[in-house]
Specification:
By secondary structure, the chain is an alpha/beta fold. It contains 10 helices and 8 strands. The strands form 2 sheets. It has a 6-stranded parallel beta sheet, with helices on both faces. It has a two-stranded antiparallel sheet with strand order 4-5. Strand 2, helix 7 and strand 3 form a beta-alpha-beta unit.
Length: 250
Amino acid sequence: MDDSADQQDAARARTLVAGAREIVVLTGAGISAESGIPTFRDALTGLWSRFRSEDLATPEAFTRDPARVWAWYAERRAKVESVSPNTGHRALARIEEEVAAKGGRFTLVTQNVDGLHHAAGSRRVLELHGNIRRVRCFERSHAAASWSDADAAPPRCARCGSFLRPDVVWFGEMLPAAALEEAMQASARCDVFLSVGTSGLVEPAASLPFAALDAGASVIEVNPDRTALSARATIALRGSAGAVLPRLAP
């Protein structure tokens, strides 16, 4: 983003963000990768390289071998807890503060499960795929306030005795209906939509910026690469979230 056209686009985007009454942001794996978190499939390295995602991230896989699935997620959880939010996460938190200060609405919709938006100070976050920092029981979805990763086998739920599992959405499971509905309504209502670090290939999240466009919103894409959204985006800013978002924030 060094040439004059990029600078002009960034300035236009900043003006749109600063003047917005309601902003919706959709974030994907790209923003978390800048904090050192491997993408879902990139996490299948080392001892896990012989597995497919479908071998580990389904209810059926957990039923077959709960210890194996628990161990993989325990390793991923430890990685998540070792990193910090980056400048992109923090810039979004500042944008939310700016919108709130003038009485507007801000909704951050994320496909990530790492909790880094909360850690950066974002308050209104809709987690479409859950949060790896939380666990719940497999049978009845009882939330667990605490647990131990010390043993190979998953801990048991204190209420019903079933195995605990990560509070994430696995293949074959439904996204949280309330969060998805809220995200869709906000996208159709907002005047500015930011799509950040997402390939736009995973539905239903991929449809959100197009819903915003169809409703008349300005859509700003922040991504190092072109996506299916790029041709229709109001402004497409090429670069990482950590480099671009601070230029859009107060």
